[in-house]
């Protein structure tokens, strides 16, 4: 899959995610969002290669972390999420659905705007000042209105990320290969006594190994254990 990238005008994470979903004519739900996770991560790699601004990468990484969590939840049913994490995943669906509607409305307005002939009219009553006094407005009303505006602005301020645990994906891939060298193992055993972050990174490592055709996986029944085995070397 190829990606178009304009250095001066990066696509936003929701725009890129919607593009990936629509390219496969999928509905917006968690199962289909999981299906485009790899494509979204590949796009982030292209952003890093062209030295995209940190704030752009940060926006993409926030969405990427939610996609990885969605995919992990679908493939590892035993993985329990916090209430706020579940709400965050549901919110991503809502945001993407709303963005799709807004994008469609924008395109419709643009088509109508450029299709309509230009019109001009005389300026009406420019010499007369018109005043409108809302009834029963007090200083308290203004204070409450400003407070609501400030709350909305705070939602869009950059998120400060601190105390991040860094997990090396390459090391996790090597660890994974060593653990399954002797015999196949199930994913439940591999993820035992590991933190949630380590479990998700382990799952990412398996995806990379599958892509590189170094391992094979098997699940004999729905929600059953996933068996991971190392592929024999090609003779």
TrEMBL record:
InterPro entries given in the database record: ScpA, ScpA-like_C
Matches recorded under PANTHER family: SEGREGATION AND CONDENSATION PROTEIN A
Protein name: Segregation and condensation protein A
Taxon lineage: unclassified sequences, metagenomes, ecological metagenomes
């Amino acid at each position: 899959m190829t990606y178009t990238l304009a250095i001066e005008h990066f696509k936003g994470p929701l725009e890129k995610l919607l593009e990936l979903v629509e390219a496969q004519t999928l509905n917006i739900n968690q199962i289909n969002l999981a299906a485009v996770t790899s494509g979204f991560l590949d796009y982030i790699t292209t952003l890093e290669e062209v030295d995209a601004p940190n704030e752009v990468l940060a926006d993409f990484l926030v969405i990427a972390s939610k996609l990885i969590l969605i995919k992990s939840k679908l493939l590892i049913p035993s993985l329990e999420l916090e209430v706020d994490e579940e709400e965050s995943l549901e919110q991503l669906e809502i945001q993407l659905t709303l963005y799709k509607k807004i994008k469609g409305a924008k395109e419709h307005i643009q088509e109508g705007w450029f299709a309509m002939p230009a019109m001009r009219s005389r300026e009406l009553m420019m010499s007369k000042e018109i005043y409108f006094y809302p009834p029963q407005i007090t200083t308290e009303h203004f204070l409450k209105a400003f407070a609501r505006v400030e709350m909305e602005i705070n939602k869009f301020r950059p998120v400060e990320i601190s105390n991040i645990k860094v997990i090396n994906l390459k090391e996790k891939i090597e660890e994974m290969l060593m653990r399954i060298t002797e015999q196949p193992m199930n994913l439940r055993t591999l993820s035992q006594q590991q933190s949630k972050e380590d479990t998700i990174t382990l799952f990412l490592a398996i995806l990379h190994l599958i892509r590189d055709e170094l391992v094979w996986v098997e699940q004999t029944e729905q929600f059953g254990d996933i068996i991971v085995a190392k592929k024999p070397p090609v003779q």
